[in-house]
Structure to design on (294 residues):
């Protein structure tokens, strides 16, 4: 367990996809409350300064490190050079902040930010788009390796890679030395998959873990009312570990009992006006400590 570090994402304080959620919460409040709740790492949100000296000082004063940051890819819909340019900028920023992994997710054809039913209109890649995605990811993996980093692919609701079968295809068609996987317990459960089964199957490829829970009553509403992904978020479909019905403890134990070395990141995007970020951060920290000893 000593090789596992615990971080929390700022999306509970201010939502990158829905900036109106938590607009009143400052960067300083966010990172101060993360530290107060007992976390030692953070992912990077839209209010974080991009000046690495400024950001480093603010985090170091609170005993925090950067775990990673989200990077949008458009390998299926745009020339590779456009994604490459943005990726290199993110890579270099994260390297300067001491992060070893770069979270990436394909946004070509994504509906995660659109007002469309998330369960009805998931994009489906053509074979040619799958080829562009897998070869593009390997090239980005090579760019990450140049600086001693690696990419971890984030499967995500509303995108072309959200199911276990789609994760299988991605893993089968990419080089393990170049492309790793981010395991997200909440997104897998949202998609109707078993996080433990995916963890078992692709354990050797997993380089980053997001821990989030799901409220089953809200999940059913998302299906019944044909909600979009973001409407589901606003309704409270996600919550912190231990507050929903996802069996997170066995997943955490599998990593804790292994030689996994990396981050567990609590990530539960909610409306901070309805779910106080510090309260839920403390709830998550207590749950992880009480169930795993971490």
């Amino acid at each position: 367990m000593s090789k596992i570090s615990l971080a929390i994402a700022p999306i509970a304080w201010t939502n990158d996809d829905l900036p109106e959620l938590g607009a009143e919460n400052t960067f300083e409040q966010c990172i101060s409350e993360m530290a107060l709740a007992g976390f030692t790492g953070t992912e990077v949100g839209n209010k974080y300064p991009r000046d690495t000296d400024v950001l480093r000082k603010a985090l170091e004063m609170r005993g925090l490190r950067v775990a990673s940051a989200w990077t949008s890819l458009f390998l299926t819909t745009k020339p590779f050079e456009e994604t490459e340019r943005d990726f290199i900028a993110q890579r270099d920023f994260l390297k300067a902040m001491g992060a070893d992994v770069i979270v990436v997710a394909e946004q070509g054809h994504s509906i995660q930010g659109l007002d469309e039913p998330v369960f009805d209109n998931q994009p489906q890649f053509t074979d040619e788009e799958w080829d562009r995605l897998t070869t593009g990811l390997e090239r980005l993996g090579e760019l990450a390796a140049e600086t001693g980093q690696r990419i971890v692919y984030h499967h995500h609701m509303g995108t072309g890679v959200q199911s276990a079968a789609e994760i299988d295809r991605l893993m089968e068609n990419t080089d393990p030395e170049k492309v790793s996987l981010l395991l997200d317990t909440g997104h897998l459960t949202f998609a109707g998959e078993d996080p433990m089964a995916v963890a078992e199957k692709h354990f050797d490829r997993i380089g980053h873990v997001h821990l989030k829970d799901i409220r089953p009553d809200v999940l059913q509403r998302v299906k019944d009312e044909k909600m979009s992904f973001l409407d589901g978020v606003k309704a409270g479909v996600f919550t912190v570990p231990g507050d929903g019905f996802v069996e997170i403890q066995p997943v955490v134990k599998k990593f804790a009992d292994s030689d996994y070395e990396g981050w567990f990141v609590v990530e539960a995007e909610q409306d901070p006006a309805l779910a106080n970020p510090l309260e839920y951060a403390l709830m998550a920290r207590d749950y992880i400590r009480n169930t795993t000893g971490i």
About this structure: The first helix runs from residue 27 to 36. The chain has a mean pLDDT of 96.
